[in-house]
Specification:
The complex is a heterotetramer. By secondary structure, chain A is an all-alpha fold. Chain A is 69% helix and 1% strand. Chain A folds into 2 domains: 1-66 and 238-255, no CATH class; 70-233, MetI-like fold (Orthogonal Bundle), CATH 1.10.3720. In chain A, strands 1-2 form a two-stranded antiparallel sheet. In chain A, a hairpin with a 2-residue loop joins strand 1 (104-105) and strand 2. In chain A, helix 5 (110-119) crosses helix 7 and helix 7 (145-169) runs antiparallel to helix 10. The two termini of chain A are 29 Å apart. Chain B is an alpha/beta fold. Chain B folds into 2 domains: 45-187 and 389-427, 3-Layer(aba) Sandwich (D-Maltodextrin-Binding Protein, domain 2); 194-364 and 462-530, 3-Layer(aba) Sandwich (D-Maltodextrin-Binding Protein, domain 2), CATH 3.40.190. Chain B contains 22 helices and 19 strands. The longest helix of chain B is centred in the first third of the chain and has 23 residues, at 3-25. Chain C is 70% helix and 0% strand. The chains are: A mainly alpha, B alpha/beta, C mainly alpha, D alpha+beta. The A-B interface holds A 36, 38-41, 55, 58-59, 63-67, 133-134, 137, 142-143, 221-222, 224-227, 229, 233, 236-244, 247 and B 48, 51-55, 83-85, 87-91, 93-94, 97-98, 101, 112-118, 120, 123-124, 127-128, 131, 133, 135-136, 245, 258-259, 319-321, 324-325, 328-329, 340, 349, 424. Chain C: It is found in: Cell membrane. Chain C: Belongs to the binding-protein-dependent transport system permease family.
Chain lengths: 280, 533, 298, 362
């Protein structure tokens, strides 16, 4: 590797890293400002250009001027977790069926069923939200965690199926056959022989589920009233005509913290080499 | 253990379980607990200081009455939940949260508050109401939605109407809260648009002389929109207040999905509200023909497009918050909208405290007469009573008494006195008591500033040539359509005439969709207020 | 495993039925409501025939938004692909602090779009944000990020690229890491340079991953609305409205449920057709062999 | 205790994978199925295992219908050509897997697994994962797992095909006794290699294009291939087949006299026949038929020389490594006493092992 190329390479990497980090840095800076730190124009250096305060952070942890984020955080965590588990379970089962068996219902074949699953992602959320409202009202599940879990499953299931079909296609089917020859029923073969070998695939699917579940704002916002608030809602509740940018920044940083840990976790799998085969 | 004892010991948990289940199912209805001893003595000192250093240390006295700290703290609402929807934090959202916390502290109730951005509030409130879903007990929303909300609201009970605080609400704002003869909204805010100027520039001798030399005119608070434009252009882009940063002539709310429609109506009011013409400003109330594309409105939009040159960077996409920061932060020299920017400028830590003044909205030298289809050359003023925040209790509320107690507590004299001084709360004068310069001087305002402020506000109350919001069912659609038209013209996508013609066409469609009779009936109420009949 | 046909539904049905149960009612509801005049003032399921669809055809704002989406989604996804692939190549191997870069490059994808858009709004703020401030320090006049159509689109695309390049990066990096070593050895033995190796070995091997990554991103990008909602609210005028945001305006903000229903269905049909064609074209452009049905028979 | 297949047929997309396959597999015997790639061998095993349905035909076990018996109740073990093991389990757990499923007691499992691992020589690797083993070792694990439970049917689908030549021979030797030592089990072993089929099998089934075209003990199949196709399949290199005429005590290809008529063909009437001759039965000589070298393969201790003789191709196997260039003209000599004679349809008429006057029957 020539020195010129190395310089070029590290320059590019650094530029992009700067672009990635910039917004976070700005959010961090802003979270320690107050109205006076924001009004005059852009300031960068704490103590020098503005007097740092903890107001923003106090406001999200029970300060009267903000919105409490702890309960929404827990709500988001529960909804994301439960919906992800259900989606992964149902999605992995369906994906396994689609990977191993041929389905033919009229003119509908496997690829059409897979397309049906994936096509749910094409559906703009706006289409679904009004009928979902009536659906959940009918089931008496508006403003409840189970209601949101059901809706979130509809969002996540297609992702789980998409990732897992590809993954199972990559596992030799002789393994399930052998398990059945060894005395497992079809379900046993799936559970005992395939699932234990699907950890990388499930990891990727779980990551996508977590990202899309955690970050859903649209449905949570419209299908809840006062009891259940999710984290994105808590942040958006600060988007007033006079946005308290410091509180908004603190809430934003707090809200994204768990998923940043997720990025670290995914990278570990990448580096260990367990994931690469999964995402093809 | 004999059999009897056994039965007994089993029965107790079963009974407990049954009670719990009944409690959970909510079918038992609100239980009214007897009063408890008051936590406050009459006339105790009230301060928000303990809630954080964001709050002023000002202390006020609890004013005796049914809504006072003392009276409300007698109520025992323990074990009950009050569900509230309000605007995003901080505007009206923060006082909602704050008073909810206080209400919890003194009554034992559990209060759940959800804060929603402005653009979402309407559907977030209306969807469950229409679906019959008991989502919220108390709702805070812009008062102009009364036409959509009224069917789902509980009229304010007499005992609250008779409270001294309510009796003191000005006639105009009680009118705003009334629908078909019943007070269905609980007034918590009184809003209007007025002009805000920087006196350290506009009343400065040096600047006045320079202005006179350049234009041959006196520099003063602009009396017409043409004058506003002239002054704004003259000072625009220069550092005239000596803070090292350029100043700009005007800051206005121009963002489409924010409140641009209100700003536009303020600009249009003197062109379209002819003192001698009755029967509606937005529609001809007899035919329900939209008037939004008549020459008066078109001229106002042309003015607004011209004014772009006097706005600061980003001024063509200012939300209310931007406008507040721009004027309140000392960047823009003039502004017109709600009180917030003015209060922001008057905050204790503000650079431009007491260097500002309030004045009536600019008028015009001529006004369009839609009966004669001519421009009449008369000096015209037309204050715009644009919407303010209001609150109401839903018919589906489980404990209406608790809900009204919360609202009456929210707006009790002590709370309101404190709320009025916190700019970001968005709570503005709506009681006669607030129109007293002494009240504001007590907050550290200079006498001139306080007097001009109070005179401006009460002058609006006294005017007979006023414009009110289009308080009809579907108002959001009308205003959204208007905002689209104004935004298209400001963005240069269409000429003002084209844009407003399109709006007029959409308005006709909306009227047909909502039902001409319903809109007309509602609009008659507005016109009656305007025509002072 | 056709010998086991009796058992196969056991796998597919739970997931399929769950999704069908959740989706069918909303879909039927939307179809039905699109033929009604349901709106905020008259929330009733009446029947107005195809009136809504006639209106859709004449709704120039809707069609303009669709055209804009071609630029917004197509443009950003293409840039995301190029940058994502480039970054993946850069940190694929032989790079110091590799894991740090990788985590860093993944992070934006994990953040909530509405929340990040609010942060970006502060950053692009025309008078209080750091971007214009830094431009000013470089002697460049302030850019009207949210008040001129061009800059507003640029801001929107910047945010989209920031948020979703990591997705491409992840898929491309995983693809690269799973490549067989032999073709590279062969290329090295043939004495192929880096450039030639890339075009003759890496790129063709990455074609299938590329196509599927681009398609998935296109699907997701076509729904663009959260970011528009917070960042520009579709402005100035209607210059940055995406179909998703326009649907939201009509359907939820103005609550013209019936009309929004017909807009939604029109949009859905458009998207399915477009994406199908795009998928076919991409596969041809990347010379990916047409994949046969996934369930192979032995 | 037999496994009987009758008229099994399977067509997929117009291609016959199995066509009227009828065979009876006996307990305690090792059946080798030989055929080229895609001859239907794997399909047959998969049908027997229950992994593949058929279009028609029947399959019975102990006289009872076996087609409707699900895979997991067929008491069948299988070893694949690919080294298939459970990647997530250790070697020990891999081998123990079928025993656990069968509900065998713990101690018993340990005993049998250890014994099994010892037999394949993997005791020291029992804690490793399959991915940490070499190909040969992985296949030993698969074998151990197949053998450990003493299944009633043992199917081996070209188990050594993916191993290198040396290892293949070694394993084949090692396991010869193991396969044939399965008690009452029906053992079926598929292969493409004639030597393997002959060496291991008690019974050899020759498959071609979905059909079983000959069944019999190895010696019989080897000595008397029923058709030219069989003759090609069961010899490596495939038996040289050429068309010639018997006339006047001489055999001629086109106009070229190639050899005299040997004794065992002496009573055949004059006419056109197809003749078969194994590669080792042709020698290069200093004088004889002139042929042109078209290809030379050197395989260890042998050299295969491909020759063209007036349009007919021959493969000659000679010992040792020889330096022969393409395009050389060489002389070759056929050993007439090793000639097979087939009629024009390819059916065997005479083989070297049958005396004069004893027509071949099937």
């Amino acid at each position: 590797m020539s020195r010129l190329y190395a310089t070029f390479k590290y320059t590019l990497i650094s530029v992009w890293a700067g672009f990635v980090v910039g917004p976070f840095m700005w959010a961090v800076l802003t979270s320690f400002k107050d109205a006076n730190g924001v009004q005059g124009g852009a300031t960068y250096l704490p103590w020098v250009q503005y007097e740092p305060t903890l107001t923003g952070w106090q406001n999200i942890f029970g300060g009267a001027g903000g919105v409490d984020v702890v309960r929404p955080f827990l709500n988001s965590a529960v909804i994301t977790l439960v919906a992800s588990i259900i989606s992964l379970a149902l999605g992995a089962l369906a994906a396994y069926g689609l990977s191993r068996y041929r389905f033919k219902i009229g003119f509908i074949a496997n690829s059409d069923i897979i397309f049906f699953f994936v096509s749910q992602r094409i559906m703009p959320p706006v289409v679904l939200v009004v009928p979902f409202f009536f659906l959940l009202q009918w089931a008496n599940l508006l403003d409840t965690i189970p209601g949101l879990v059901i809706v979130t499953v509809a969002l996540l299931l297609p992702i789980a199926v998409w990732v897992m079909v590809d993954f199972f296609n990559g596992i030799p089917r002789q393994i399930d056959e052998m398990a059945m020859l060894d005395g497992c029923g079809p379900f046993g073969a799936f559970v005992r022989a395939i699932l234990p070998n699907s950890v990388p695939g499930l990891t990727v699917a779980a990551m996508f589920c977590a990202v899309f579940g955690w970050n859903d704002f649209f449905f949570a916002f419209r299908l809840t009233f006062t009891e259940i608030q999710t984290l994105p809602q808590a942040v958006v509740a600060l988007n007033s005509s006079i946005p308290p940018w410091w509180t908004l920044s603190a809430a934003a940083l707090f809200g994204m913290s768990p998923l940043i840990l997720l990025a670290v976790w995914v990278e570990r799998y990448l580096s260990k080499g367990s994931l690469p085969g999964v995402i093809r | 253990m004999n059999r009897k004892q056994l039965t007994k010991s089993l029965a107790v948990p079963v009974a407990v379980l049954a009670i719990t289940v009944a409690g959970c199912s909510g079918s038992s209805g609100p239980e009214q607990k007897p009063d408890k001893p008051a936590l406050f003595k009459p006339g105790s000192e009230i301060s928000y200081a303990k809630y954080g250093k964001d709050y002023p240390t000002t202390k006020v006295k609890d004013v005796p009455g049914p809504c006072s700290y003392e009276s409300i703290s007698r109520k025992d609402y323990s074990g009950q939940t009050l569900k509230i929807i309000s605007h995003a934090v901080p505007v009206i959202g923060e006082p909602t949260q704050l008073h909810a916390r206080q209400f919890e502290e003194i009554t034992g109730a559990k209060v759940e508050v959800v804060n929603v951005p402005f653009g979402e509030l309407h559907q977030k409130i209306l969807t469950p109401l229409q679906a019959g879903q008991p989502a919220y007990d108390v709702m805070f929303y812009p008062s102009l939605w009364i036409g959509d909300m009224a069917p789902y609201l509980v009229p304010v009970p007499k005992e609250y109407l008779d409270a001294p605080g309510m009796k003191d609400v000005t006639k105009a704002y009680l009118g705003v809260a009334t629908w078909n003869g019943k007070v269905v909204q609980y007034p918590v805010d009184g809003d209007r648009h007025y002009l805000k100027i920087r006196t350290d520039v506009l009343a400065d001798r040096k600047h006045q002389a320079a202005y006179l030399a350049a234009t041959g005119k006196q520099l003063r608070a602009p009396q017409t929109w043409a004058e506003y434009q002239e002054i704004a252009s003259f000072f625009g882009g220069k550092d005239v207040d000596g803070d090292g940063k350029p100043n700009f002539g005007s800051a206005e709310v121009t963002k489409r999905d924010d409140l641009v429609f209100s700003a536009f109506i303020s600009r249009a009011a003197p062109y379209v509200k002819h003192p001698d013409v009755t029967g509606g400003v937005f529609f001809d109330v007899t035919t329900m023909q939209p008037l939004i594309n008549t020459p008066g409105f078109v001229r106002a939009l042309e003015d607004m497009v011209k004014a772009k040159s006097t706005w600061p960077a980003g001024g063509a996409n200012f939300g209310l918050g931007d406008e507040i920061f721009s004027f309140g932060g000392g960047q823009a020299l003039m502004s017109y909208s709600w009180d917030d920017a003015f209060i922001q400028a008057q905050q204790t830590d503000s650079r431009i405290r007491n260097r500002v003044a309030a004045a009536p909205l600019p008028g015009s030298a001529e006004v369009y007469n839609r009966n004669t289809r001519t421009w009449d050359k008369i000096q015209n003023q037309a204050p715009y009573f644009t919407w303010g925040w209001t609150s109401a209790v839903a018919k589906t509320a489980r404990n209406q008494k608790m809900a009204f107690d919360y609202l009456c507590f929210f707006s009790n004299e002590a709370n309101t006195a404190l709320d009025l001084t916190i700019g970001r709360f968005g709570v503005n004068p709506y009681r006669n008591a607030h129109f007293d310069p002494g009240f504001w001087q007590a907050q550290g305002w200079s006498k001139d500033v306080a007097t001009a402020y109070v005179n401006t506000l009460s002058g609006m109350e006294k005017s007979t040539n006023r414009v009110f919001d289009l308080r009809v069912p579907g108002v959001n659609e009308y205003m959204s359509s208007l905002a689209n038209g104004v935004a298209a013209a400001l963005a240069g996508q269409q000429t003002p005439q084209q844009a407003l013609d399109a709006v007029a066409k959409e308005w006709t469609e909306i009227t047909d969709r909502v039902g001409k009779d319903r809109v007309q009936e509602a609009y008659r109420n507005v016109v009656a207020l305007e025509d002072n009949s | 495993m056709d010998g086991l046909r009796r058992h196969k539904s056991m796998f597919l049905l739970p997931g399929l039925l769950t999704l069908l149960l959740i989706i069918v009612f909303p879909l039927l509801f939307t179809i039905r409501v699109s033929f009604s005049g349901w709106n905020v003032s008259n929330p009733e399921m009446d029947f107005v025939g195809g009136a809504n669809y006639v209106k859709v055809l004449q709704d120039s704002r809707f069609w303009a938004a669709n055209l804009r989406l071609v630029l917004l989604a197509g443009g950003t996804v293409l840039i995301q692909y190029l940058i994502g692939f480039g970054l993946a190549l850069l940190v694929w191997r032989n790079v110091r602090a590799r894991r740090l870069w990788r985590v860093l490059f993944l992070v934006p994808m994990m953040t909530t779009p509405v929340v990040m858009a609010a942060v970006w709004q502060m950053i692009f703020h025309e008078s209080l944000g750091p971007v214009n401030d830094m431009l000013a320090k470089l002697g460049i006049a302030p850019v009207h990020w949210f008040t001129e159509a061009g800059p507003a689109l640029a801001a929107l695309m910047t945010v989209e690229i920031w948020q979703w390049t990591p997705f491409m990066f992840l898929l491309m990096l995983a693809g690269l890491l799973s490549l067989p070593k032999e073709p590279f050895l062969a290329a090295a033995i043939d004495g192929a340079g880096a450039w030639r190796t890339f075009w003759k070995v890496t790129f063709p091997l990455m074609a299938p991953v590329s196509v599927s990554a681009i398609i998935i991103r296109l699907i997701e990008a076509s729904k663009l609305s959260d970011t528009v909602y917070v960042l520009t609210s579709g402005g100035p005028g209607s210059a940055t409205e995406s179909p998703g945001y326009y649907l939201y305006l009509r359907g939820l903000k103005e609550q013209q449920t019936g009309y929004a229903g017909s807009l939604s269905l029109t949009y859905l049909v458009l998207m399915v057709i477009t994406l199908t064609i795009v998928a076919a074209l991409l596969a041809r452009a990347f010379k990916v062999p047409r994949q046969s049905s996934k369930a192979k028979e032995q | 205790m037999t496994l009987d297949a009758t008229d099994l047929s399977l067509t997929v997309d117009g291609v016959d994978h199995l066509k009227d396959v009828t065979a009876s597999f006996q307990p305690g015997r090792l059946h080798t199925v030989i055929g080229r790639t895609l001859a239907g061998k794997s399909t047959l095993l998969r049908v027997l295992a229950g992994l593949q349905r058929v279009d028609s035909g029947s399959l019975t076990r102990h006289g009872a219908d076996f087609l409707t018996t699900p895979v997991w109740r067929r008491d069948t073990a299988m070893v694949y050509q690919q080294f298939i093991n459970y990647p997530h389990l250790t070697v020990f757990d891999n081998v123990a897997f079928p025993l656990k499923r069968a509900g065998v007691a713990r101690d018993e499992i340990r005993r049998r697994v250890q014994e099994s691992l010892a037999r394949v020589g993997l005791t020291e690797f029992r804690r490793r994962r399959p991915s940490q083993l070499s190909g040969g070792q992985q296949q030993r694990v698969a074998l151990a797992r197949a053998l450990v439970r003493g299944a009633g049917i043992l199917l081996l689908d070209e188990p050594f095909a993916n191993l290198d030549y040396k290892l293949r021979e070694q394993l084949r030797e090692e396991f010869k006794t193991l396969f044939s030592d399965q008690g009452d089990a029906v053992v079926i072993y598929t292969t493409t290699e004639p030597a393997e089929a002959m060496m291991l099998g008690d019974v050899v089934l020759v498959m071609h294009e979905g059909r079983i075209i000959q069944t019999g003990p190895p010696g019989e199949v080897y000595d008397r291939p029923a058709t030219t196709t069989v003759a090609r399949i069961i010899n490596d290199p495939p038996m040289n087949i050429f068309t010639g005429r018997i006339a006047g005590g001489r055999i001629a290809v086109d106009d070229l006299q190639v050899t005299r008529v040997p004794a065992h063909l002496a009573d055949l009437p004059d006419g056109t026949y197809q003749f078969g001759l194994r590669a080792p039965d042709i020698a290069l000589a200093s004088a004889g038929l002139q042929a042109e070298v078209t290809f030379v393969e050197i395989s260890g201790s042998e050299t295969f020389v491909h020759l063209a003789l007036s349009g007919t191709g021959f493969v000659v196997q000679i010992d040792g490594v020889h330096d022969i260039a393409l395009g050389d003209r060489v002389s070759m000599r056929l050993r007439p006493e090793r000639l097979f004679a087939f009629d024009h349809s390819g059916a065997l008429v005479r083989s070297p092992s049958s005396g004069p006057g004893s027509p071949e029957g099937r």
